[in-house]
Protein backbone atom coordinates (compact mmCIF):
# COMPACT_ATOMS: atom_id res chain seq x y z
CA UNK A 1 0.00 0.00 0.00
CA UNK A 2 1.30 3.46 -0.84
CA UNK A 3 0.93 4.72 2.69
CA UNK A 4 1.96 8.29 1.91
CA UNK A 5 -1.17 8.67 -0.21
CA UNK A 6 -3.50 7.82 2.65
CA UNK A 7 -2.72 10.89 4.74
CA UNK A 8 -3.69 14.46 4.10
CA UNK A 9 -0.41 15.45 5.74
CA UNK A 10 0.76 19.04 5.61
CA UNK A 11 3.81 18.10 3.54
CA UNK A 12 1.63 16.31 0.97
CA UNK A 13 -0.68 19.29 0.77
CA UNK A 14 2.24 21.67 0.18
CA UNK A 15 3.66 19.43 -2.54
CA UNK A 16 0.24 19.35 -4.19
CA UNK A 17 0.02 23.12 -3.97
CA UNK A 18 3.43 23.42 -5.65
CA UNK A 19 2.32 21.12 -8.43
CA UNK A 20 -0.82 23.15 -8.88
CA UNK A 21 1.10 26.38 -9.03
CA UNK A 22 3.58 25.08 -11.61
CA UNK A 23 0.82 24.04 -14.00
CA UNK A 24 -1.86 26.57 -13.03
CA UNK A 25 -4.46 23.94 -12.15
CA UNK A 26 -5.48 25.88 -9.05
CA UNK A 27 -6.31 28.90 -11.20
CA UNK A 28 -7.95 27.00 -14.02
CA UNK A 29 -11.76 27.28 -14.05
CA UNK A 30 -13.60 23.99 -13.85
CA UNK A 31 -14.94 22.40 -16.96
CA UNK A 32 -18.30 23.87 -17.93
CA UNK A 33 -19.86 20.42 -17.57
CA UNK A 34 -18.94 20.21 -13.89
CA UNK A 35 -22.14 20.22 -11.86
CA UNK A 36 -22.79 22.34 -8.84
CA UNK A 37 -22.76 20.55 -5.49
CA UNK A 38 -25.87 18.74 -4.34
CA UNK A 39 -28.37 20.72 -2.34
CA UNK A 40 -31.10 19.91 0.10
CA UNK A 41 -33.47 19.74 -2.87
CA UNK A 42 -32.23 16.18 -3.43
CA UNK A 43 -32.64 15.15 0.20
CA UNK A 44 -35.63 12.87 -0.29
CA UNK A 45 -36.20 9.62 1.64
CA UNK A 46 -36.34 6.54 -0.61
CA UNK A 47 -39.27 4.15 -0.52
CA UNK A 48 -39.12 1.39 2.07
CA UNK A 49 -38.35 -2.13 0.93
CA UNK A 50 -39.29 -5.47 2.45
CA UNK A 51 -37.94 -7.77 -0.26
CA UNK A 52 -36.21 -7.78 -3.66
CA UNK A 53 -36.88 -9.74 -6.83
CA UNK A 54 -34.84 -10.44 -9.95
CA UNK A 55 -31.39 -9.48 -8.64
CA UNK A 56 -28.56 -11.82 -9.62
CA UNK A 57 -25.35 -10.46 -8.07
CA UNK A 58 -23.70 -13.00 -5.77
CA UNK A 59 -21.19 -12.56 -2.91
CA UNK A 60 -17.84 -11.17 -4.00
CA UNK A 61 -15.96 -7.94 -4.74
CA UNK A 62 -16.93 -5.86 -7.77
CA UNK A 63 -15.66 -2.69 -9.42
CA UNK A 64 -18.53 -0.75 -10.96
CA UNK A 65 -19.01 2.66 -12.57
CA UNK A 66 -21.79 5.15 -13.03
CA UNK A 67 -22.02 8.25 -15.24
CA UNK A 68 -22.57 11.47 -13.33
CA UNK A 69 -21.79 15.14 -13.91
CA UNK A 70 -19.89 14.52 -17.14
CA UNK A 71 -17.57 11.98 -15.51
CA UNK A 72 -17.38 8.22 -15.26
CA UNK A 73 -17.38 7.66 -11.50
CA UNK A 74 -16.00 4.44 -10.03
CA UNK A 75 -16.74 2.53 -6.85
CA UNK A 76 -15.82 -0.83 -5.35
CA UNK A 77 -18.49 -3.02 -3.74
CA UNK A 78 -17.99 -6.01 -1.46
CA UNK A 79 -21.09 -8.20 -1.26
CA UNK A 80 -20.74 -10.34 1.87
CA UNK A 81 -20.60 -14.06 2.29
CA UNK A 82 -24.11 -15.29 3.02
CA UNK A 83 -25.79 -12.42 1.13
CA UNK A 84 -29.38 -13.19 0.13
CA UNK A 85 -30.45 -11.28 -3.00
CA UNK A 86 -34.07 -11.24 -1.80
CA UNK A 87 -33.44 -9.66 1.62
CA UNK A 88 -32.73 -5.93 2.18
CA UNK A 89 -29.13 -5.60 3.40
CA UNK A 90 -27.37 -2.70 5.20
CA UNK A 91 -24.87 -0.61 3.24
CA UNK A 92 -21.73 1.02 4.63
CA UNK A 93 -20.16 3.71 2.42
CA UNK A 94 -16.47 4.34 3.18
CA UNK A 95 -14.72 7.36 1.63
CA UNK A 96 -10.95 7.40 1.22
CA UNK A 97 -8.65 10.24 2.20
CA UNK A 98 -7.03 12.79 -0.09
CA UNK A 99 -4.57 11.19 -2.50
CA UNK A 100 -5.81 7.69 -1.70
CA UNK A 101 -7.98 5.17 -3.55
CA UNK A 102 -10.90 2.87 -2.93
CA UNK A 103 -8.55 -0.13 -2.76
CA UNK A 104 -6.46 1.53 -0.06
CA UNK A 105 -9.57 2.45 1.90
CA UNK A 106 -10.72 -1.16 1.77
CA UNK A 107 -7.35 -2.28 3.16
CA UNK A 108 -7.19 0.49 5.77
CA UNK A 109 -10.61 -0.17 7.25
CA UNK A 110 -10.90 -3.94 6.93
CA UNK A 111 -14.59 -3.44 6.22
CA UNK A 112 -14.81 -6.23 3.64
CA UNK A 113 -13.70 -8.79 6.22
CA UNK A 114 -16.06 -7.30 8.79
CA UNK A 115 -18.87 -7.27 6.21
CA UNK A 116 -18.48 -11.02 5.72
CA UNK A 117 -18.76 -11.57 9.47
CA UNK A 118 -21.62 -9.14 10.06
CA UNK A 119 -23.64 -9.27 6.84
CA UNK A 120 -23.51 -5.76 5.35
CA UNK A 121 -22.52 -4.49 1.90
CA UNK A 122 -19.29 -2.44 1.97
CA UNK A 123 -18.94 0.28 -0.67
CA UNK A 124 -15.74 2.20 -1.41
CA UNK A 125 -16.30 5.14 -3.79
CA UNK A 126 -13.42 6.72 -5.73
CA UNK A 127 -12.84 10.48 -5.76
CA UNK A 128 -11.78 12.46 -8.82
CA UNK A 129 -8.25 13.79 -9.39
CA UNK A 130 -6.65 16.70 -11.28
CA UNK A 131 -6.41 14.94 -14.68
CA UNK A 132 -10.05 13.84 -14.52
CA UNK A 133 -11.29 17.31 -13.58
CA UNK A 134 -8.88 19.63 -15.42
CA UNK A 135 -7.26 17.38 -18.00
CA UNK A 136 -3.78 17.71 -16.48
CA UNK A 137 -1.87 17.65 -13.25
CA UNK A 138 -0.93 15.13 -10.58
CA UNK A 139 -2.82 11.84 -10.62
CA UNK A 140 -2.36 11.10 -6.90
CA UNK A 141 -4.83 13.81 -5.91
CA UNK A 142 -8.10 11.94 -5.61
CA UNK A 143 -10.48 13.40 -3.08
CA UNK A 144 -13.89 14.75 -2.18
CA UNK A 145 -15.63 18.08 -2.10
CA UNK A 146 -15.93 18.40 1.66
CA UNK A 147 -16.50 22.17 1.35
CA UNK A 148 -13.56 23.05 3.60
CA UNK A 149 -11.35 20.24 2.19
CA UNK A 150 -9.65 19.11 -0.11
CA UNK A 151 -7.76 19.23 -3.40
CA UNK A 152 -9.16 19.48 -6.94
CA UNK A 153 -12.65 18.19 -6.07
CA UNK A 154 -13.08 20.97 -3.52
CA UNK A 155 -11.38 23.61 -5.68
CA UNK A 156 -13.51 22.76 -8.73
CA UNK A 157 -16.71 22.48 -6.69
CA UNK A 158 -17.34 18.92 -7.89
CA UNK A 159 -20.82 17.53 -7.27
CA UNK A 160 -19.76 14.59 -5.13
CA UNK A 161 -23.10 14.59 -3.31
CA UNK A 162 -24.71 14.03 -6.69
CA UNK A 163 -22.28 11.17 -7.28
CA UNK A 164 -23.46 9.49 -4.08
CA UNK A 165 -27.07 9.92 -5.24
CA UNK A 166 -26.21 8.27 -8.56
CA UNK A 167 -24.17 5.53 -6.85
CA UNK A 168 -27.01 4.59 -4.52
CA UNK A 169 -29.50 4.57 -7.38
CA UNK A 170 -27.22 2.30 -9.42
CA UNK A 171 -26.50 0.07 -6.42
CA UNK A 172 -30.25 -0.47 -5.98
CA UNK A 173 -30.42 -2.01 -9.47
CA UNK A 174 -27.70 -4.53 -8.64
CA UNK A 175 -28.06 -5.61 -5.00
CA UNK A 176 -30.82 -5.68 -2.40
CA UNK A 177 -30.14 -2.69 -0.16
CA UNK A 178 -32.04 -1.59 2.93
CA UNK A 179 -32.96 2.11 2.41
CA UNK A 180 -33.19 2.70 6.17
CA UNK A 181 -29.73 1.30 6.86
CA UNK A 182 -27.32 3.22 4.62
CA UNK A 183 -24.38 4.57 6.63
CA UNK A 184 -21.30 6.64 5.81
CA UNK A 185 -17.80 6.97 7.15
CA UNK A 186 -14.53 8.32 5.82
CA UNK A 187 -10.93 9.10 6.59
CA UNK A 188 -9.50 12.64 6.58
CA UNK A 189 -10.92 14.32 3.45
CA UNK A 190 -13.40 11.43 3.32
CA UNK A 191 -14.46 12.30 6.87
CA UNK A 192 -15.14 15.91 5.86
CA UNK A 193 -17.30 14.51 3.06
CA UNK A 194 -19.20 12.12 5.33
CA UNK A 195 -20.10 15.15 7.45
CA UNK A 196 -21.30 16.87 4.29
CA UNK A 197 -23.57 13.95 3.50
CA UNK A 198 -25.07 14.19 6.99
CA UNK A 199 -25.73 17.88 6.36
CA UNK A 200 -27.23 17.48 2.88
CA UNK A 201 -28.53 13.91 2.66
CA UNK A 202 -29.97 13.18 6.09
CA UNK A 203 -32.92 11.41 4.45
CA UNK A 204 -30.57 8.92 2.78
CA UNK A 205 -27.74 8.51 5.29
CA UNK A 206 -28.85 7.00 8.60
CA UNK A 207 -25.68 7.80 10.61
CA UNK A 208 -22.06 8.78 10.04
CA UNK A 209 -18.67 7.96 11.58
CA UNK A 210 -15.91 10.37 10.46
CA UNK A 211 -12.25 9.61 11.24
CA UNK A 212 -9.74 12.49 11.39
CA UNK A 213 -11.92 15.05 9.61
CA UNK A 214 -14.34 17.80 10.61
CA UNK A 215 -17.64 19.30 9.57
CA UNK A 216 -16.69 21.64 6.75
CA UNK A 217 -20.00 23.36 5.97
CA UNK A 218 -20.38 26.66 7.84
CA UNK A 219 -24.18 26.39 7.69
CA UNK A 220 -25.02 22.72 8.21
CA UNK A 221 -28.73 22.13 8.71
CA UNK A 222 -29.64 18.44 8.46
CA UNK A 223 -33.27 17.76 7.65
CA UNK A 224 -33.46 15.35 10.61
CA UNK A 225 -31.23 14.38 13.56
CA UNK A 226 -28.23 12.38 12.30
CA UNK A 227 -26.22 10.28 14.79
CA UNK A 228 -22.46 10.95 14.70
CA UNK A 229 -19.50 8.91 15.99
CA UNK A 230 -16.30 10.91 15.43
CA UNK A 231 -12.75 9.53 15.92
CA UNK A 232 -9.71 11.80 16.24
CA UNK A 233 -6.17 11.79 17.59
CA UNK A 234 -4.98 14.71 19.69
CA UNK A 235 -1.59 14.71 17.91
CA UNK A 236 -3.03 14.67 14.39
CA UNK A 237 -0.50 16.61 12.31
CA UNK A 238 -2.74 17.05 9.24
CA UNK A 239 -6.28 17.80 10.46
CA UNK A 240 -5.68 19.37 13.85
CA UNK A 241 -7.74 18.05 16.76
CA UNK A 242 -8.35 21.63 17.94
CA UNK A 243 -9.21 22.95 14.48
CA UNK A 244 -7.09 25.13 12.23
CA UNK A 245 -6.44 27.12 9.09
CA UNK A 246 -3.66 24.99 7.59
CA UNK A 247 -5.78 23.94 4.61
CA UNK A 248 -6.15 27.51 3.35
CA UNK A 249 -2.72 27.34 1.66
CA UNK A 250 -4.17 24.92 -0.88
CA UNK A 251 -7.57 26.50 -1.35
CA UNK A 252 -9.27 24.94 1.65
CA UNK A 253 -10.97 26.76 4.48
CA UNK A 254 -10.61 27.04 8.24
CA UNK A 255 -12.26 24.16 10.06
CA UNK A 256 -13.56 23.68 13.62
CA UNK A 257 -12.21 21.38 16.29
CA UNK A 258 -13.28 17.78 16.72
CA UNK A 259 -15.23 18.66 19.86
CA UNK A 260 -16.95 21.59 18.14
CA UNK A 261 -17.88 19.45 15.12
CA UNK A 262 -19.57 16.95 17.41
CA UNK A 263 -21.13 19.66 19.58
CA UNK A 264 -22.84 21.19 16.54
CA UNK A 265 -24.53 17.90 15.75
CA UNK A 266 -25.45 17.41 19.40
CA UNK A 267 -27.18 20.78 19.28
CA UNK A 268 -28.87 19.96 15.96
CA UNK A 269 -29.98 16.60 17.36
CA UNK A 270 -31.56 18.23 20.40
CA UNK A 271 -29.21 16.55 22.89
CA UNK A 272 -29.89 18.12 26.29
CA UNK A 273 -28.70 15.38 28.65
CA UNK A 274 -25.29 15.00 30.28
CA UNK A 275 -22.26 13.74 28.42
CA UNK A 276 -21.52 10.10 29.20
CA UNK A 277 -18.36 8.07 28.74
CA UNK A 278 -19.17 5.09 26.54
CA UNK A 279 -15.72 3.59 25.99
CA UNK A 280 -12.30 3.70 27.65
CA UNK A 281 -9.26 1.59 27.00
CA UNK A 282 -5.63 2.67 27.07
CA UNK A 283 -5.26 5.97 25.21
CA UNK A 284 -8.80 5.92 23.77
CA UNK A 285 -11.92 7.42 25.32
CA UNK A 286 -15.37 7.93 23.79
CA UNK A 287 -17.88 10.41 25.21
CA UNK A 288 -21.46 10.85 23.99
CA UNK A 289 -23.99 13.65 24.23
CA UNK A 290 -27.24 12.16 25.54
CA UNK A 291 -30.86 13.17 25.92
CA UNK A 292 -31.17 13.51 22.15
CA UNK A 293 -34.35 13.53 20.07
CA UNK A 294 -34.69 10.68 19.32
CA UNK A 295 -32.53 9.14 22.04
CA UNK A 296 -30.55 7.16 19.46
CA UNK A 297 -29.40 10.37 17.72
CA UNK A 298 -26.30 10.62 19.90
CA UNK A 299 -23.28 12.71 18.95
CA UNK A 300 -20.09 11.07 20.20
CA UNK A 301 -16.38 11.87 20.13
CA UNK A 302 -13.73 9.17 20.50
CA UNK A 303 -10.44 10.83 21.41
CA UNK A 304 -7.13 9.04 20.98
CA UNK A 305 -4.68 10.79 23.30
CA UNK A 306 -1.42 11.22 21.43
CA UNK A 307 -2.94 9.67 18.32
CA UNK A 308 -1.74 10.83 14.91
CA UNK A 309 -3.51 11.10 11.55
CA UNK A 310 -4.56 7.47 11.64
CA UNK A 311 -7.42 4.97 11.59
CA UNK A 312 -7.81 3.56 15.12
CA UNK A 313 -7.27 -0.16 15.10
CA UNK A 314 -4.92 -0.06 12.09
CA UNK A 315 -1.40 0.06 13.60
CA UNK A 316 0.32 -0.41 10.24
CA UNK A 317 -0.66 3.07 9.07
CA UNK A 318 0.68 6.02 11.05
CA UNK A 319 0.60 4.08 14.31
CA UNK A 320 -3.16 3.67 14.61
CA UNK A 321 -3.91 2.79 18.24
CA UNK A 322 -4.54 -0.87 19.11
CA UNK A 323 -6.75 0.31 21.99
CA UNK A 324 -9.74 1.13 19.77
CA UNK A 325 -11.09 -0.70 16.71
CA UNK A 326 -12.81 2.12 14.82
CA UNK A 327 -14.32 -0.13 12.16
CA UNK A 328 -15.91 -2.49 14.68
CA UNK A 329 -17.16 0.35 16.89
CA UNK A 330 -18.65 2.08 13.84
CA UNK A 331 -20.56 -1.02 12.85
CA UNK A 332 -21.93 -1.48 16.36
CA UNK A 333 -22.96 2.18 16.34
CA UNK A 334 -24.62 1.82 12.94
CA UNK A 335 -26.44 -1.37 13.86
CA UNK A 336 -28.34 0.43 16.60
CA UNK A 337 -29.24 3.44 14.45
CA UNK A 338 -31.31 2.75 11.34
CA UNK A 339 -32.95 5.80 9.84
CA UNK A 340 -36.34 6.38 11.54
UniProtKB/TrEMBL annotation:
- According to the UniProt entry, which residue ranges have a biased composition of type Polar residues? 20-29
The segment annotated Disordered runs over: 20-48
- Alphabetical keyword list: Carbohydrate metabolism, Hydrolase, Polysaccharide degradation, Secreted, Signal, Xylan degradation
Question: Which positions, given as ranges, span the membrane?
Answer: none
Superkingdom, natural source: Bacteria
SUPFAM superfamilies in the record, alphabetically? Answer: alpha/beta-Hydrolases (SSF53474)
Molecular function in Gene Ontology: feruloyl esterase activity
Which InterPro entries does the protein's record reference?
Answer: AB_hydrolase_fold (IPR029058), FaeB/C/D (IPR043595)
A cellular component term, taken from the record's GO annotations = extracellular region
Q: What protein name does the entry list?
A: Poly(3-hydroxybutyrate) depolymerase
Q: Which organism is it from?
A: Corallococcus exiguus
